[in-house]
Every structure is written in C-alpha cells, then in structure tokens.
Write a structure and sequence with these properties.
Elements lengths: L9 E5 L8 E5 H10 L3 E2 L5 E2 L12 H12 L1
Antiparallel strand pairs: 1-2, 3-4
The chain binds zinc ion.
Zinc ion binds next to helix 2.
Length: 74
C-alpha cells in the first residue's frame, strides 16, 4: 500500500486589501520568505499581496478552499 501525502504545507493567510476580507491559502515557504524578504506571497487562487504578520479570523477564500479540497482529496 502506498500512501501519498498531499502537500499540506499550506496555511491560511489573510489579505489586507481594501474591503476584501478573506483568508487565503499560501505555501508556508512563501510566507516565511515574505516575512524575511518583504516580498508578496501568492495564494492558491492566484492572489498576490503582502500578508499581515498576524492572521485574523476571516472566512476562507472560496477559490482557495476549493483548490485545497482538491489537493487534500487526493
Ligand atoms: Zn484565495
């Protein structure tokens, strides 16, 4: 039996854009890099922005959620 581990190295990150308040899934490596280098991260849905240091509780971005479900469903 082979167990395929999905790429769960992702975490929700809130966006800080205008009235758009969603938590997007971003690769943790990107989050770390963003924190160190101050560069923008790219979410699963393709949104790019510079995340806040402290994620707040926002509803998960529907697009990210859907993509994540596909990743975890495999
Ligand atoms: Zn998203």
């Amino acid at each position: 039996m082979t167990t395929v581990r999905p790429d769960t190295n992702l975490g929700p990150v809130t966006s800080d854009g205008d009235h758009e308040r969603f938590a997007h899934y971003v690769k943790k490596g990107d989050i770390v890099r963003s924190a160190v280098e101050g560069v923008a991260v790219e979410a699963l849905c393709g949104k790019r922005w510079i995340p806040d240091r402290d994620p707040q509780r926002f509803p998960v971005c529907p697009t990210c959620k859907e993509i994540m479900a596909h990743i975890r469903g495999r």
